[in-house]
Amino acid sequence: MEILIDEIKKTSSDMARRGWAESNGGNISLRLKEEYYEYFNEHKPISDWMKLPETMPEIGGDRFLVTGTGRYLRNIELFPEKNVGVIETDKKGEAYRLLWGYKPKGAPTSELPSHLLSHCRIKEKSDNKMFAFIHTHPNSVIALTYAVANLETKSLTKLLWQSHAECIVVFPQGVEFIPWVMAGSMDLGKATASAMSRRNLAVWQYHGICGCGRNLDEAFGRIDVAEKAAEICLRVMAVGGAKQTLADEQLKAIAANFNCTVDEEIFE
Ligand SMILES: [Zn+2]
Description:
The protein is an alpha+beta fold. The chain is built from 10 helices and 9 strands. It has a 9-stranded mixed β-sheet, with helices on both faces. Helix 4 packs parallel to helix 8 (186-198), helix 5 crosses helix 9 and helix 6 packs across helix 9 (216-238). The chain is globular. Zinc ion binds at residues 25, 135, 137, 183, 207-208.
């Protein structure tokens, strides 16, 4: 358990120091591997069962480390038991209860629908190898959703791939663009989960980005690379726009060189 707490401390502090988690912005969830279950057997659950907004049999009986609602990511490194908690779903995936944390009293992030619905999809698509999901507010990714007209998944992905030559290796399935939906809603949760079934990154227009990975480092790394590409893209726009860029053939060659399976539809 301490290892997991150290990992979430590191990730949340990095997010805060990069300016991606102002105030109580940003949230993290990590599905626990069974080897960590034993730690909780000596603890009594700290809440009753609470109904999930939708039945999620894919994650029935699973446990998650989740950041708390209203809590600041920058404070996790100081007081992990106050700002993070562990929840458990029931066997049918109909309800959840709190097992640990959120001291003295609290609840998981208001973006729990996006997190849990996405965990259903990423667990499935990775054959149970993906455990981490992050939502955060990086400046340049958000700025791009204002600065570029008529953004959609293909144009956003292409723009990011072209803005740094290694992007296509880090997210060969592209970045899903989700037009503005109310934060914390089931609609946003469903759109995000659907995106996660196809890709490892999804941008929420005017709001932020979500990323998944086998662990927190991988999820964080994907977002970090997308944010760097977005920043480069904005800098290029600020000095009058690109005078040249990576051609489709060059992008495809990079992906082939690193044995990446690219979403070919992005090139259509
Ligand atoms: Zn947010």
